Amino acid sequence: MDQLGAMEKSPLSKPSSLVQRAVPERNFSGDIGGANDGSGDRVKVFGSVMEKSPLTHVSPGHMKLPPENSLTEPQRWAASYAFDTQKNLMEELVKFGDFILTREDFLSLTPGAIPVDNIFHMFAMMLTKYNNCMEEPTFWCLPPSFSKDIRQGKSVKQLVADYSKTWMKPSVTLNYVYLPIKEESGLWYLMVIAFREGMLYYLDASMGEVEAMKRKSFIRKLGDDVAAIIGESTYEDFSTKAGCITCSGIAAANGLPIAQTRETSAIWVLNWMAMGGAFQRNLMPQMEENAVRLHTAVALLMAPFNDRTQWITNHTSTS
Fold first, then answer.
1. pLDDT tens, 44-102?
2. Could you give the 3-state DSSP secondary structure of residue 250?
3. CA-CA distance, 175 to 281, in Å (whole number)?
4. In 3D, which of 218, 290, 266 has the Cα closest to residue 2?
C-alpha cells in the first residue's frame, strides 16, 4: 500500500469541518472567529482546513466537497505528489514568506513518523495568516521556537522584536494564545492561554505525575513572558489583558489521552492547534491519527498563500 493509501485507510472526518462536535456540527469559517466560552459540548478535533484552503489553480468544478471519508481529486493528487518518495526529496512544495517545506518535511507526516519541527512552524504560520486576514484576530498561534527561545533566556525586548510583527498582531478581541511546546525528550504538548476563562490550559497526551510540576512551572513562565510582551508599548490598546494572564490559574483540559508516545503526542498537538478561535476545554480522548496527518499535509499544500505552486502549475498544464 502506498503512503497515501495507508493514511486514507483510517476514516476521514468531513473536510469541511475544522472542529467536529457531537452536537451540533460547526464549520471552519464560523468557528475561527466565533465567540465561545471554552466549555460547550465535548469535541473531537481534526487538523484540517481543506475547505478553507482550496487548490485555486484547479478547475472549480473539481472543488465540489467530497463524500465523507474521501478527498477531492485535486486534494488526493496534491497529497500523492507530496508523498511520492521517488521524487526529489529537496523539492520545495510550500513557501510562506521566508519559510519552506520540502518533500522530505512532508514525509515526516507519513504513518509512524515523527513530524519535524518545520511542520509545526508552518502549521502555526498558516493558522496565523488565516487569522490575520480578520480585522480583529481572535487568537494567536505561536511557533515552537517561541517556547524554545524562552527556555534559552531571551529577553522580553528580543521576543517582541522577533515575534510581535508576524505572530502577535494587536487585537482587542484576542481570546486565545496557542503555544506548542517540544521537550528535549521529543514529547510534545500544547499550552493555551484563555483570556475569556482566565486560565492557562495545558493539553498534554503524555504527562504523568513526575513531569507535572516541571511542566506547570514552565507553563507559568510562558504565561508571564507573554504578559510582559503584551505589557509593552506596542500593545498599549489592549495591555490590560496582561493582568488576566498573571492572575490565571493552571488547569488541564478535560478528556485528554494518557501515556502517548512521542509520535502520537506530536499528532495530538497538531490536532489541537487546529481549533484556533474555537477552543474547547472539553475534548474526546480519541482521534484518527492518520486522518490528522493527511489533513494537515493537504491544508499546508493547498493554502492560498503558498508561494511555491510551480509543481501545481506543471501538473495542470499537462493534464
1. 334 333 333 333 332 223 223 333 346 788 888 899 999 999 999 999 999 998 899 99
2. strand
3. 14
4. 290
Q: How many residues make up the chain in this entry?
A: 319
How many Å apart are CA 159 and CA 225, to the nearest integer?
9
What is the tens place of the pLDDT at every residue in 8-36?
Answer: 544 333 333 322 222 222 222 223 333 44
Rounded to a whole number, what is the distance in angstroms from the first to the last CA of the chain? 25
C-alpha cell at 158: 528580543
Looking at the DSSP bridge assignments, the partners of residue 139 are 176
CA 188 – CA 288 distance, rounded (Å): 18
Amino acid sitting at position 140: W
Take residue 60 and report the three cell numbers written for it: 472549480
Strand, helix or coil for residue 38? coil
| CA atoms of 66 and 268, how far apart (whole Å) | 25
Question: What are the chain's domains?
Answer: 3-318 (3.40.395.10)
CB-facing half-sphere around the CA of 253: CA atoms within 13 A: 31
Identity at 153, one-letter amino acid code:
G
**CA–CA distances in Å: residue 140 to residues 32, 178, 180, 314:** 11, 6, 11, 35
Looking at the DSSP bridge assignments, the partners of residue 192 are 178, 201
Quick: pLDDT tens for 261-296: 888 899 999 999 999 888 888 888 888 899 999 999
- Decide: 82 and 301 in contact? Cβ < 8 Å: yes
Class of residue 291 by CB neighbours under 10 A (exposed 0-12, middle 13-18, buried 19+)? buried
Give whole-number Cα distances, 157 to 139, 150, 168, 230, in Å. Answer: 22, 12, 14, 11
Q: pTM for this structure?
A: 0.78
Long-range contact pairs involving 161-164 (C-beta distance under 8 Å, separation at least 24):
163/229, 164/229, 164/232, 164/234, 164/235
